[in-house]
Amino acid sequence: MHVTTRLVDERTNWIVSQCSGTILDIGGNQGHVFRDTGLDVTLLDINEFERCEFPQVVADAHSLPFADNSFDITCLLELLEHVHNPILALKEAARVARKKVIFTVPNEYEWPPELMPFQQTLDIQAELGKSRGISLEEKIKESNPTLTKLRDLQQVYHRRWYTQELLESHLKYASLPYQVQTIKNPEGYSWFCGTIEKEQVNLNIGSFVAMLPPPWINLDILDLSDDAERKGFKFQQVDVTKGLPFGDKSIDHINCSHLIEHLAVSEGIDFLKECYRSLKPGGVVRICVPDTRKLVDAYVQGDMDRFNPDQPDEYKQAFSQSDKFWRILTAGHKTCYDTISITHSLELASFNTVNLVDFDEGVDYHPEVSLSIEGRKA
Predict the structure, then answer these.
(1) What is the mean pLDDT of the chain?
(2) Over 44-108, what HEC string results?
(3) Confidence band (pLDDT; 50, 70, 90) for 6?
(4) Cα of 235 vs its chain's centroid, Å
(5) Do domains 3-113+151-197 and 202-376 have the same CATH topology?
(6) For residue 166, which of 174, 155, 156 has the smallest C-alpha distance?
(7) Which of 27, 276, 289, 308 keeps 20 to 30 A from 319, CA to CA?
């Protein structure tokens, strides 16, 4: 956890600077923070307001009507001080976010004396309303002219006043990784503004001994747990033909280098469907396979020796070009791929964006003989 203090003109600039992709503004009223920003925002509030430029959903912050990882970013802007259970609201916001949660709460104890905290102001307004014969609900609607239906009177008011210690206790109790800073504006108002970054979950499938360090989780059909433990790597023994032991929309990135060619064509498509199921929206699967066209071109040109640096001694000692061709093509492989066939398999698995990518020596193997391609989930 990191706490800093800085002065800016307004907290709105900071909020907008943190946002990209799809955004859920929880307790967003009519989305005043995001007007004219061009951002893709959905508003959610327990009360109903007049229609505005953003899609609006009526729901409770304690039980969001969305699946896990449904939005890139969720926002809790001046909401935690209102809700019955701020810890549950934080957990729900984190559940629905793919990347991060943005939260702000007023730091009212630091406001100048002449800037009366919201709660005191509302209490006084309520008393004034009663003395004038106006009901509390009428007074709330009077001060919120776009409100059309009040569903929860209690959550209109501040239920708590946050100090840094109270805010951090709620964040820690929710077991969420966070950063907090204090933002002030020239008028003297002050807010605690922070983010909760979602942990990235990346899979390196068919790792064998070429494992990737955390946060990658390495998977292989062989039990390589001892080797992984010695190196400090995460490892799970998995037979991918029986599916992936991860929930829907739970994975950010999948790397799979020189595995899918060891599966039959139908098994490979089923495997890619499992990757699609497991990936979060916007998630990427990266596939590296031997490129059959490169092999054929090298064989026709009598240049199979070009692959010697990446091959074992028995390949280098093979007596003919055709033997070398056969050794690479059939080295435990059940199928072969080129750009067209692996693209087709990814599309059959529902990946809507498929692109060839440059070789990455950090995650791909055997550049001379391989092609690398990525599929992105919508």
Answers:
(1) 89
(2) EECCEECCCCCCEEECCCCCCCCCCCCEEEEEEECCCCCCCCHHHHHHHHHHHEEEEEEEEEECH
(3) very low
(4) 22
(5) yes
(6) 174
(7) 289
Q: Return the higher-pLDDT residue of 152 and 42.
A: 42
CA–CA distance, 308 with 327 (Å, rounded to integer):
12
Provide the CATH number for the domain formed by 3-113+151-197 in this structure: 3.40.50.150
8 pLDDT more than 60: no
Question: In whole angstroms, what is the distance from residue 124 CA to residue 229 CA?
Answer: 63
Helix (H, G, I), strand (E, B) or coil at 141: helix
Going by C-alpha positions, the residue among 89, 84, 99 that lies closest to residue 23 is: 99
How many other C-beta atoms are found inside a 10 Å radius of the C-beta of residue 212? 18
Q: Which alpha helices (DSSP H) does the chain contain, by range?
A: 11-17, 86-96, 118-131, 136-143, 164-173, 225-231, 265-278, 292-300, 313-316, 321-329, 339-348
Report the half-sphere exposure of 169 (CA within 13 A, side-chain side). Answer: 5
Q: Up-side HSE of residue 260: CA atoms within 13 Å toward CB?
A: 34
Domain ranges of the chain: 3-113+151-197, 202-376
Q: What percent of the chain has pLDDT over 90?
A: 63
Q: Considering the domain 202-376 in this protein, what is its CATH number?
A: 3.40.50.150
